[in-house]
Amino acid sequence: MPTKIFTACLGTETNSFSPIPTGMDLFRRTMFVRGGAHGDKPNVFALPLIIWRERARALGWDVAEGLSAFAMPAGDTTRVAYEAMRDEILSDLRAAMPVDAVMINLHGAMIADGYPDAEGDLLAHIRALVGPGVLVAAELDLHCHLTELKVASVDAMVIFKEYPHIDVTDRAEELFRIVVDTLAGRVHPRMAMHDCRIIGIFPTTREPVRGFVDRMQALEGQDGILSVSLGHGFPWGDTPEVGMRVLVVADGDHAKAQALADRLGRELWDMRADLAPPFMGIEDAIGRVVGHNGEKPLVLADTADNPGIGAAGDSTFLLRRLIERKVGGVAIAPFWDPQATLSAFEAGIGARLALRIGGKLGPASGDPVDVQATVMGLVENAHQRFGKANPPMGNMAWLRIGNGDAEAIDIVVNDYRTQGFSPECFTAAGLDIARCRGLIVKSTQHFHAGFQPVADDILYVSAPGTGSMDMRSLPFTRVTRALWPRVADPHRG
Ligand SMILES: [Zn+2]
């Protein structure tokens, strides 16, 4: 009988402080695919499944594809949604058995009502169903909660190394090679992890994290080390095991995996103060825009209102201060406001109308802002580029407060909640970003590759909101371990 694998995907990145519930509808609108029918515009979280299918079939293996579901980050997943999707994957797996391996793509930071580690629960059910003799392998986003339950339930796990996540397919290839070698009896993966007791957000585009990622990669394939991963954790997940952990997969040697995980964990601890980029307050950031007269715009990342980490994408803290300080020549995108978008489409290009913008989802969005705006551009069903993917933006309207490129504040509102990945989140609506001195992008890090070529400089702004960068004041209720920087030395006592 040919080798047979079963594949599936389930995930979302739960922000416990988000006002938006995650139910079946959000999964259906993001990715909800049965039987591998991903189409010609696959979601980025479908890419590993497509690679595993192609590689397995090239080897003459059989592939059974279970449910593939992913939701745009938001608040806790509902219990009915999680249990329905878990049970569907388990029944798909049961129908496919016997299988030689299960390969599952997860995010790793899903929290569901009653399930603080939803994907850990899924993996434990998969293990219970297939038994100890079947290889279970998982790929995770680096913003995962790398829990004891997840690690205990699988044989091999590989986590994205790059933030922004430009290596989703590379890690899928890496996990597939480990599966091939394990099924052939050439390697015997043993995993160990180290709890760094650190929370935060750590782009891999800057030092010292960049060098650390390069060192992790250099260790792989040497001295029996199959894979080295860093789970950054997702700091807005209010779950007991939140935080950064190192994971090492070694060939047949748990002690070796543990020793390396501990060594790398100590390295990270020693670098802790420099791991996160510096964040700038709203007033300082706007001050930099006021004083800016470079060739290209300054790009300000409104990190706290990034829909990619579960925020609404309609917060007004920066917009309000721009208006109050009368700072023009600045554009904001994408601003999630379906009602303002609808009104702009109704009014048409050139119309001037009173609009109440943003601040609709709750206190984390700030208060709504009432403006007189001119409709400058309208585009239906827009998209923006993100690596090889082409994520949707929905209908977009370019609104202008004030007159003239230098004095106006431009806002691109849309009706599909998404972060800004590339300059198209402005230009698709017709806006010429070269005329702006400042661009405010609702994103934390995934905008970086797209905007760097058009930016004079990039500033990370720390505003209030769902994705607040003030790690000390996150209102955790379920976290039981001490974590830096909330306490100075969480490893003591
Ligand atoms: Zn991530």
* Order of the strands making up the biggest sheet: 12-13-14-15-11-16-10-17
Q: Which ions, cofactors or small ligands are bound in this entry?
A: zinc ion
Helix-and-strand structural type: alpha/beta
Distance between the termini: 55 Å
Biggest pleated sheet = 8 strands, mixed
Overview of this protein structure:
The protein has 493 residues and is an alpha/beta fold. The chain folds into 2 domains: 272 residues, no CATH class; 187 residues, no CATH class. Helices cover 28% and strands 23% of the residues. It has an 8-stranded mixed beta sheet with strand order 12-13-14-15-11-16-10-17. The protein has a 6-stranded mixed beta sheet with strand order 2-3-1-4-5-6, sandwiched between helices. β5, α5 and β6 form a beta-alpha-beta unit. α2 packs parallel to α6 and α3 packs parallel to α4. The longest helix is centred in the first third of the chain and has 18 residues. The site of zinc ion has 4 residues, from loops.
Q: Which terms would index this structure?
A:
binds zinc ion, alpha/beta
Helix and strand arrangement:
Elements: E1 4-11, H1 24-30, E2 31-33, H2 47-58, E3 62-70, H3 79-96, E4 101-106, H4 118-130, E5 135-140, H5 148-153, E6 156-159, H6 168-183, E7 189-195, H7 209-219, E8 225-231, E9 245-251, H8 254-270, H9 272-275, H10 282-290, E10 298-302, H11 317-324, E11 330-336, H12 338-347, E12 352-357, E13 369-383, E14 392-401, E15 409-414, H13 424-427, E16 438-441, H14 448-451, E17 457-461
Parallel strand pairs: 1-3, 1-4, 4-5, 5-6, 10-16, 10-17, 11-15, 11-16
Antiparallel strand pairs: 2-3, 7-9, 8-9, 12-13, 13-14, 14-15
Helix pairs in contact: 2-6, 3-4
This protein binds zinc ion (ZN).
